[in-house]
Every structure is written in structure tokens, then in C-alpha cells.
Design goal:
With 109 residues, the protein is an alpha+beta fold. It is built from four helices and five strands, in the order E-H-E-E-H-E-E-H-H.
């Protein structure tokens, strides 16, 4: 649940609900001399490290098991909020880069 301010009343009201909720404060600020410039402050849903840890897979290399980052999983999760044309463009560009530069490994930063 996104709210302006987490208060004891909000927490109490949420406990009465049937669903387990995570309460996230989402604060918005407007620049005084430029009303079209906004800043938003909120706690992220996950950290980069948590996301990377979720993205690891077991692979066999030279007969040994190793844990590697599954870059397709990472990219798919990074792109899931974009629209289809953006996803299609990304996949086409990725394939072109992989075909042109087979030694390059693409990964989100």
C-alpha cells in the first residue's frame, strides 16, 4: 500500500484487513522555483543485491557446478514494466549485438 505518511492509525487499519500488506511511504516534493520539477522519496521494494541474488542460476562448466547471474532473467525483470515495442526493440538490438560481437556479455548495470 502506498501512502503519504505511515502513522499508527494507518498500521491499525491495515491490520484489520484480510491481506498481508507492506506499507510504503511515497512522498512527493515540488521545486519551489519550478513547479514542473518533482522529486519523490520512497523505500525501494528490493535492493539491487537482493535482485541479483534472486537472478542466480546453477550451471555446469567444465564438469563443475557454478552459480552465475541469469542475465535474461535480469533483463526480463528490468523490462517488464515497459511496453511491447520497447521490449521488441531491446530484443532485436540485443540479438544484433550478440551476433556482431559474440564475446560480449550484456548485463544490466
Amino acid at each position: 500500500m502506498l501512502i503519504d505518511e505511515k502513522t499508527p492509525d494507518v498500521e491499525e487499519a491495515c491490520q484489520a484487513l484480510k491481506y498481508a500488506l507492506e506499507i510504503i511511504e511515497f512522498e512527493s516534493y515540488v521545486q519551489q522555483d519550478s513547479p514542473n520539477v518533482y522529486a519523490h522519496l520512497f523505500e525501494p521494494l528490493y535492493t539491487s543485491q537482493e535482485f541479483i541474488n534472486e537472478s542466480r542460476i546453477e550451471v555446469k562448466e567444465s564438469g563443475q557446478s557454478k552459480t552465475k547471474l541469469d542475465y535474461l532473467y535480469v533483463w526480463d525483470n528490468q523490462l517488464k514494466w515497459t511496453n511491447s515495442p520497447v521490449q521488441e526493440l531491446f530484443r532485436a538490438l540485443t540479438l544484433e549485438i550478440q551476433n556482431t560481437f559474440p564475446d560480449v556479455i550484456g548485463q544490466p548495470v
